[in-house]
Amino acid sequence: GQQLNQSPQSMFIQEGEDVSMNCTSSSIFNTWLWYKQDPGEGPVLLIALYKAGELTSNGRLTAQFGITRKDSFLNISASIPSDVGIYFCAPRNYGGSQGNLIFGKGTKLSVKP
Amino acid sequence: DADVTQTPRNRITKTGKRIMLECSQTKGHDRMYWYRQDPGLGLRLIYYSFDVKDINKGEISDGYSVSRQAQAKFSLSLESAIPNQTALYFCATSDLAGARTGELFFGEGSRLTVL
Questions:
Q1: Of A6, A94, A101, which is closest to B104 when you measure between CB atoms?
Q2: What is the DSSP code string of B33-85?
């Protein structure tokens, strides 16, 4: 079966530091999404990537869709306390009868002021 | 008020009891989903529905059933709860545009503990 690996599992950083996390898969996908779950809330979409090699930014967030279509990374620059939460990659293959998201196991981010 | 509302938010029950988690949405979306979140395991899809007459099994449907009573309502039932169904459950919705983009809108979650 397909494997989806997200790393690191957790990170403890100081405010102001940059953060990098990634996901790798044994399967090819045509969409990579990144969601964030704030403590006590449901996940919210941060960034969506639809093309291999695509690099997209959203404020302090930058994400890339790997050229092999089997991986993606998310970077957060100059972290702040509200960046605390769990970040999930969520690839899928849109089209056909399925196309549901597959969620990674998450990267739990803690930011020390 | 939240666009996707789950009830109850917290529930403690005993092994063998029947439990229903309810989800209602005011977003007007056709598609509704139930996910389960366990620490360190991410979110796993239990069931999903693309409209009122459509029910589909997800990755981990065993031990669960669902009912789509109306476009805005999607309930998840555990007929006979067992301790390994202790988890945080999320309802999510999307519309056709969301189906293309992959954007799901999640409720705040229902924490279920089975003793």
A1: A101
A2: EEEEEETTTEEEEEEEESSTT--EE-TT-TT-EEEEEETTEEEEEESS--GGG
